[in-house]
Amino acid sequence: MFKNIINKEFTMQVLTHICFGVVGALLVQFVFIQRTATAVATVNLTALQDSFIRETAKQSLSQEEMKQRVTSFSQQLTQAINKIAKEKHVTILLTEAVISNEKDYTQEIVNRVKKGMSQ
User: Fold this and answer.
1) Under 8 Å CB-to-CB from 24, ≥6 apart: which residues?
2) How far apart are CA 104 and CA 116, in angstroms?
3) According to the model, what pLDDT value does residue 22 have?
4) Which end of the chain has fewer beta carbons closer than 10 Å to its terminal beta carbon, N or C?
5) pTM, rounded to two decimals
6) CATH code that applies to domain 39-118
7) Is-contact 41 90, C-beta < 8 A?
8) In the 8-state DSSP scheme, what is residue 89?
9) d(CA 55, CA 95)
């Protein structure tokens, strides 16, 4: 048994298998993890909410209508962010949380929310 451990040929085979295992793991990581990594994008959620509040405050709505409008806005906003993230393969973060210049989808989200609320 100890002769096999000391045997150079056996040791080389073991090292070869380990090396191929590591290379295989790196290849899997590159193909399935690195290539499917999503980019980061931003949305200025504060500006979106402020704009919605200003527009809604200008209208004379009952408390029930206001509640429905807020609920609709929230649902449309969530749907728009989720759809853009899925379509563009990005992770959307708040503009305030991102230091670097990443692609901003605020205007596209505004357009989708307005379209969804008008239906």
Assistant:
1) none
2) 20
3) 64
4) N
5) 0.67
6) 3.30.910
7) yes
8) T
9) 22
**Structural domain boundaries in the chain:** 2-34, 39-118
What's the pLDDT score for residue 83? Answer: 92
Tokens of 31: 């193909």
Report the candidate in 69, 86, 77 with the shortest Cα–Cα distance to residue 106.
77
Whole-number pLDDT of residue 10:
63
pLDDT digits (tens, 9 = 90+) for 16-30: 766 566 666 666 666
**Which H/E stretch holds residue 103?**
strand 103-104
Q: How far is CA 99 from CA 23, 95, 96, 103, 105, in A?
A: 35, 8, 8, 12, 16
Helix, strand, coil shares of the chain, percent, nearest 5, are 75, 10, 15
Question: What integer pLDDT is reported at residue 6 of this predicted model?
Answer: 55
Contact present, 41 and 83 (Cβ < 8 Å): no
Read off the DSSP letter of residue 38.
P
Give every residue of the chain whose pLDDT is below 70, as ranges: 1-8, 10-12, 14-15, 17-38
C-alpha–C-alpha distance, residues 83 and 98, integer Å: 21
